């Protein structure tokens, strides 16, 4: 099963690479180079997380702690000079989402991998679809690069992917779709919240630690928020099964 999943990941990256080529073919060389660096680094990150989950779930749990710690550091680094009340409430919200993300990292391996793939597909292809077809800005002042067309494109591909993911993980379509819809919503909101925090301090990136990306929060905001939703969703399912005898659960 793992071989099939990884094969599909490679296909998605091939499609993403084609999308990046179409996007960058008329751009200046240095801009195109930065775009390809971003794609290459993202490929490495996806592989680290994917194989961390597959080989030993404890590795992903450790990675989740490192991601949370890096996110806290980035929030505090921007918020130490001004807007301290705003920074405090932002930190509290981040800690709440991070707690959910940490719980998510301890869920069964198959479920963690299932949700991680949905989040990754939506996150990456919403960017590609937005650059290829995006015209309608969702929130130009907060995140000028996010478009309605991009969100719809990434969302459609992520939801369509659930059909084959459900077969691989022997999960029902209903449960997979409900989880996927929540993941997409929370991943999008997490991305917007991170962008809003940066705009409040009038910066483009949290830092340049990860080549081609604007910091740990810039790269993992969707995963943190989406993972938090999965942890909440699993608790809701368990409650339904244990207390309500819910038929669709």
Q: What Rg do the Cα atoms give?
A: 18 Å
**Mean of residue pLDDT?**
88
Count all strands and give the number: 2
The class by helix and strand makeup works out as mainly alpha
What strand line-up does the widest sheet have?
Answer: 1-2
- How many domain units? 1
What is the share of helical residues? Answer: over 70%
Instruction: Profile the largest sheet.
Output: 2 strands, antiparallel
What form results from the Cα inertia axes?
Answer: globular
Give the oligomer, counting copies of the same chain as homo and different chains as hetero: single chain
Distance between the termini: 24 Å
Strand residues, percent: under 5%
Could you walk me through the main structural features you see in this protein, from its secondary elements to its overall organization?
By secondary structure, the chain is mainly alpha-helical. The chain has one domain. The protein is 80% helix and 3% strand. The chain is built from eight helices and two strands; from the N terminus they run αααααββααα. A two-stranded antiparallel sheet has the order 1-2. α4 (84-105) packs across α8 (216-244). The longest helix is centred in the last third of the chain and has 29 residues, at 216-244. The model has no long low-confidence stretch (mean pLDDT 88).
